[in-house]
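Lab notes, practical 5.
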Amino acid sequence: IKGRLRPERKHMLTDALNKVYSGLRLHFYMQVMSRFDHREATLTTVEAFSMEVINEMKEPTVSEFSEMMGISSPNAAVRVNSLIRKGYVEKIQSEEDKRTYHLRPTQKFMDYNRINLSYLQTVVDRCEKRFTKEQLGTLEEMLNIINTELMPEINLDDQRKRQRSS
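Output from the prediction step:
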């Protein structure tokens, strides 16, 4: 079997992935909190999570959002309406089916999300200085495999196909 790790190495890989993920989250939270006093209509934690899901789902319907989050449609509608009131999301009528509306993050959310993306770019810039092109290529390949093959529970394209076929 390809790539089997001894238990102690497996623990080290788990710890390393967790540290990277935690570091990215921690930096984002630090930046958001430092701007907390300067923002009107601040997102609650649940709203921030909801916006991240809506953004990653690429214009889902309320029903698709509700199913992805594992919450009831009425609960999803309340969350979405609050996000609309605060100006972070808008409903866009579907071109194919005029009865359907899709959720689209607004520029206000994109500005909020830029905090995270700017730090990620800083880390990428540092990686380019630290690693060879070959190492970066391997890292990119491995991250793409993790994202597309090893985390099927959050493969949004597959999730959307399953929702639409049911």
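Observations recorded by the TA: The beta strands are 89-93, 101-105. The mean pLDDT is 85.
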